[in-house]
Amino acid sequence: MNWDHLELDQRVVSAVRRAKLKSVREVLCFSGPDLQRLTGLSRSDVQQLLTAAATTCRRHPPVSALLLYHGECRRLESGLRLGVGCPVLNELLRGGLPVGGVTELSGESGAGKTQLALQLCLSVQYPTEHKGLNSGAVYISTEDSFPIRRLQQLIREQSSLRSDVPPSLISSLQFSDHIYIEHAADLESLQVCLSRRVPLLLARGLVRLVVVDSVAALFRSEFQAADWLERNKQLIAFSSTLHHLSQEFTTPVLCINQVIYTFHSWITHPKASARDSVPLSSNVSPALGLAWANQVMVRLMMWRLQETVVRGDQSSVLRKLEVVFAPHLARDSRDTAVWREGVQGVYA
Ligand SMILES: Nc1ncnc2c1ncn2[C@@H]1O[C@H](COP(=O)(O)OP(=O)(O)OP(=O)(O)O)[C@@H](O)[C@H]1O
């Protein structure tokens, strides 16, 4: 679909071309004021542009939207899921992560996102009757070193976590041989990894789960605030690569994201310095904004709560795993805890 499909003044079309906006769909990724800045058009011209773009997209749904509403929905209904390794959390997710689409898991530091991602790298290796996908996982680490010791501990503890699986099956699985660890310290190496090595692993059937831990790290570190346009373009290119991989290989993709805090109001004693101010209330939301959120099919969040739960000789900070949005799930949550053997829902 190009600009000729839009009923617009030639002047507006020329301004859009000068701004190097490549597709009608891309227009809808920007707010009105952003488009005004980009194109130099007036508010009413931009309004006209946005209305025309939205009308055209409704008449000619893009391939990804068609896939979402037909391909992905069919897959969602077909029920093929990757279980997370816990019945309580599987029930929350109606079986687990969908196999066609990008799932985002966001939350504050220490919430347990990496723990759940590691658990999925093991759970994918079980046969489908045990809610796995009978294959391995590729774990792309963009920030910290890969938590290999914790992974080994989770492997040792599998028989405690997966009491639903015969112990003989658990001991026959060579979990660590089927986890491919990739490090991508910058966007260029991430792109190389996603366009060359990951498709190869998927095509050979060696993996059926892609984890990116984390998306926010690279996009935050490589772009200054003024580079928002370039950042959004790269974000959309990155998420479309993930979508294609997920669709082509019927593979769940899990992206870990951080959160940002917005403080609404501050209390400051008249004689205190600015550093002594304390936030009165704060809002937590996933990093990377709308440009990224629009590309995600399922958004999950993990929260750290104030309480502690005890089980046998172990204690854990109580957490909550929440479904923020998903086409097939209601907004809901379950209390969870991180134990030696992994992440599990906590029965009320
Ligand atoms: N062996 C273990 N036994 C029990 N709990 C553990 C174990 N290892 C880690 N944890 C729990 O998991 C928490 C760390 O979780 P995780 O690394 O998944 O955080 P995260 O959400 O990925 O944070 P970040 O964004 O900083 O990477 C620890 O604070 C601890 O509570």
Automatic annotation (TrEMBL):
Residue span, RecA family profile domain: 78-259
Protein keywords: ATP-binding, Cytoplasm, DNA damage, DNA recombination, DNA repair, DNA-binding, Nucleotide-binding, Nucleus
Natural source organism: Mastacembelus armatus
Entry's localization field: Nucleus; Cytoplasm
Database matches in SMART domains: AAA
Organism classification: Eukaryota, Metazoa, Chordata, Craniata, Vertebrata
GO biological process: double-strand break repair via synthesis-dependent strand annealing; resolution of mitotic recombination intermediates; t-circle formation; telomere maintenance via recombination
Keyword DNA damage assigned: yes
Cellular component GO terms held in the UniProt record: cytoplasm; Rad51C-XRCC3 complex; replication fork
Protein name: DNA repair protein
A Pfam family this chain is assigned to: Rad51
Function, as annotated: Involved in the homologous recombination repair (HRR) pathway of double-stranded DNA, thought to repair chromosomal fragmentation, translocations and deletions.
Keyword Cytoplasm in record: yes
